[in-house]
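--- STAGE predict ---
source: upstream dedup step, 1 unique chain passed
mode: sequence only
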Amino acid sequence: MAPLYRLDGRGPLQASVFFSDFARRAFRILVPGAHVFIATNPLLSHLVYGPMLERGFEKRGEVIRLVQTLRGGDRPKNAHREFADVTVMPRSSWEPWGLFRKPCEGRVQDNLRKWKTGGLRRVSAELPFCDVIPSAPTRPEERAISPHPSLKPQSFVRQVVRACLPLGAGIVLDPFMGGGSTIAAAVSIGYESIGIEVDPQFFDAAAAAIPALAALPGNGKASSKIGSNAGLDFQRSCTAAAAGTVTPC
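--- STAGE serialize ---
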């Protein structure tokens, strides 16, 4: 998500209204059993999760991205020497990604057969997809390709994107495309995807960056689409059905 709804003085009520509208629109276009991943932060996640539940989504947990950031950990402002042993709030070392699912039609196995959704793709036959993923800040070479302020690293996003289509079939939708990291991950893995971005400058920058991001070595399988815009569907508005939604940046 690009980046998590800057409040800009509008307050939590307006944020809840925004995400309520997002959840309503997402519920309408997603197929039964489709999953939604939403990148948030520990202070604002409740503004996202509540509206998603109210609109009918099931909360399926959280994926925790373990990453050291510069948020928090500071001493009291203008009194750091007087209170040298005090931290105002914890130094943030994790990023929560809310995981939601549109209810299945019947049993999960029935939904998988009909819609190819309802679960998450395993890492391997022995290892399921797990909800804690060690990560690192986005690499300088990735930021050089796509200088969006909240670009997520391919090493992390490819794991989330791969998991969202349990049978490897369907469409990955990123309605807040930002710097293009989600779409690049989908291209790298070989998934069909749709990216939507309201900001024309970010849209053009992402369209140019996605092939290069997708071509970077990482934990996604290379796709024959890498190196061109073939097979990529960039849109500024969309009403298509989707099998999975990932909303980082």
